[in-house]
Amino acid sequence: MIRRLLFVGCCIFAFTAPFDFPLKNSGIDIPLIKSFLIAEIVLLILLWELVIIKERRIVFEKVPIFLPFFFFFLLHLYSSIFPSDRLIWSLKYTLRFFGIGTILFIMINFIDEPYKIRRLALFLCAGATLAALFALIQYRWPYGLMPLQRFFQDHDVNPARIRGLFGWPTNMAAYLGSTLPLLAVFLFYDTSVRHRWWRKIPSIASLGILLSALLLSRTRGWILGFVAGFTVIWGMHLLRKKENRAFRLGAALLAVVCVCTIASGAARIMENDLEDSERCRVQLAHDAIALFYKNPLKGIGADMVIWSAPSHARAHNLFIEAAATLGIFGPILLVWLLLSVVCSAGRGVFGDSRLFFLQVGSLASLASFLGHTLVDSFWHNSDSIALFWILSGIGICAARMNAGACRKP
User: Among residues 161, 105, 130, which one has the least CA distance to residue 344?
Assistant: First the structure.
């Protein structure tokens, strides 16, 4: 019964990830638990403890990602306590990031059947679709939704750039754009609806809603993520089909496009032929790199760029910010963590399995997420943190089931 509640709780968490709000807005004031997502995580951890008490054993399966997760957590703690000028701020960020990250291990230990991981992925896509639908309604009636937006602490409304309840158009574009590839694989690869075209209508409608919201966000970073995510889907498809000639030709064309794009961007930077937003991003990157040079070993403290940079803004690049806040070991451990996720989620992806499409979808969505982090800053948002860990959990759980590692309790 408790295991069933944990599964239901994971599905609710995935669905409500884009709808985080301060608990004080609903009249609840609990020390250290200030937001709805954190409250959900605490309840799931308590249920996990009840399973341990009931079964009288430690219910925790060691997985390769545990070590990079643990060391990355220790590095955040160290940088929060010692170099940071704002101890409480850095500790809050660290506990929030890794506290939400426990959803990954809850999924690994308690989502042990194919239908469960498929339903959780559907709940994640449904939540993103509802968030995008709200954003489209906001575009049509920007001032008619103010009571609801005040509840989510989103007061400012700009009808020209929708942002839903994410606080900023970029944050919304990051979440919706990263969910898009996972939703696409349901449309093209889900064998349970392959011969029933009418069951694909919800997926088609959801894709249309997400794309409409992304276009009306009037941001461009999600396009980079979109290209990265759908390149993964395309590449996986060709490799699975063993179309080596087509794959080589496509890979060559993609390489040419990437090289030309990078060369064009580098030339514009060298010539200083940039738009205002692009010039701002370059300056933010320079500021963060300067902060790294000041303290290359320890960093300036977790999530401290916003307080230490002259512009009081985060570096719009995940790896540069990791170097500035955590020192030289920050990007190293971050890459280790990401490689562990990709290797665990991609294991057996080219085999014959009903769940391979979830592995492809999670890998593509993670590629979209990470591609977007190269030009924008949203790693500090609870909804984006939750999305990263849920996508990782979907891919790892699907891979473990494909390999026969998970068994019924």
Answer: 105
Q: How far is CA 326 from CA 87, 295, 330, 366, in A?
A: 14, 9, 5, 22
Is residue 95 packed enough to be buried (19+ CB in 10 Å), middle (13-18) or exposed (0-12)?
Answer: middle
What's residue 104's pLDDT?
93
**Cα angle value 38/1/58 (rounded, 5°):** 70
Alpha-carbon span 11 to 51, nearest angstrom: 18
Convert the pLDDT of each residue in 106-133 to its tens digit.
Answer: 999 888 888 899 999 999 999 999 999 9
Quick: pLDDT tens for 173-186: 999 999 999 998 88
Give, as one character, the DSSP assignment of residue 85. S
Domain ranges of the chain: 2-402
Query: Which are the contacts of 237, defined by CB distance < 8 A and separation ≥ 6?
Result: 360
Name the H helices within 190-220: 201-216
Cβ–Cβ < 8 Å for 84, 304: yes
User: Whole-prediction pTM value?
Assistant: 0.88
